[in-house]
Design a protein that fits this description.
The chain is mostly beta strands and 103 residues long. The protein has no helices and eight strands. Helices cover 0% and strands 42% of the residues. Strand 1 and strand 2 form a beta hairpin. The radius of gyration is 13 Å and the shape is globular.
Length: 103
């Protein structure tokens, strides 16, 4: 039995807190990240979760990312780098979140 894709909304606060956290999306679900109050660079590990490792989210906007079909039962993590849309992900430190995908 397959379930219909869902949209999970994750707010990244101005202090880098992810809410809710952790999350448990399934392949095909959309995770919409909302930057609440400051610019955010979102760094994702592994990149295979959404198909990339670095995403820019200007303050007050959201970015929907689809969980890839082959991202089955994997643990993932992400970091929010705040205030600088040119920041790279190498050695990134900031607000942290993550979870595990379902079947």
């Amino acid at each position: 039995m397959t379930t219909a894709p869902r949209t999970l909304t994750v707010t990244i606060s101005a202090d880098g807190t992810f809410s809710p956290d952790p999350i448990s999306p399934n392949p095909g679900d959309t995770v919409e990240f909302m930057a609440d109050g400051t610019d955010v660079v979102l760094c994702v590990e592994p990149a295979s979760l959404f198909g990339g490792e670095r995403y820019e989210i200007p303050a007050g906007t959201s970015l929907p990312l689809e969980v890839q079909p082959d991202a089955i039962n994997i643990s993932f993590a992400y970091v929010a780098i705040l205030g600088d849309l040119s920041a790279g992900c190498e050695g990134a430190r900031g607000g942290e979140g993550g979870g595990t995908t379902g079947p």
